[in-house]
């Protein structure tokens, strides 16, 4: 109630290992007026079911470009984590795809563009993280 329009509200850390990525995606999506309105009027079931994810096709090109960039940065971060884990283990029999599958908050098979499936996976991962 006491917030000024445009004032940034600090959200507590979710504790998720992809918390920063989640926050950045939300911040970018909220810059799109249409998506922000849909987000504000959606109930939790619409969000969890993936219905809101389909609205991603309607956001501006600038927003999609920024989301693509965020996803590429997150994929690069995850690859660094995997490399660090591999370096610490020094085992040549590591299955890279199995390691990537541990990261269920994005579609690792498409590392370059942020699609509705990515938003859906991010929402489902967050929902699962709070159970």
From TrEMBL:
Q: Say if the entry is tagged with keyword Signal.
A: yes
One annotated Gene Ontology cellular component of this protein: Golgi apparatus
Gene encoding this chain?
Answer: Nucb2
Query: Which terms does the record give in the GO molecular function aspect?
Result: calcium ion binding
Report the domain of life of the source organism.
Eukaryota
Which terms are listed as keywords in the entry? Cytoplasm, Golgi apparatus, Membrane, Phosphoprotein, Repeat, Secreted, Signal
Q: Which residues form the NUCB1-like N-terminal domain?
A: 5-126
Q: What is this protein called?
A: NUCB2 protein
Q: Where in the cell is it found?
A: Cytoplasm; Golgi apparatus; Membrane; Secreted
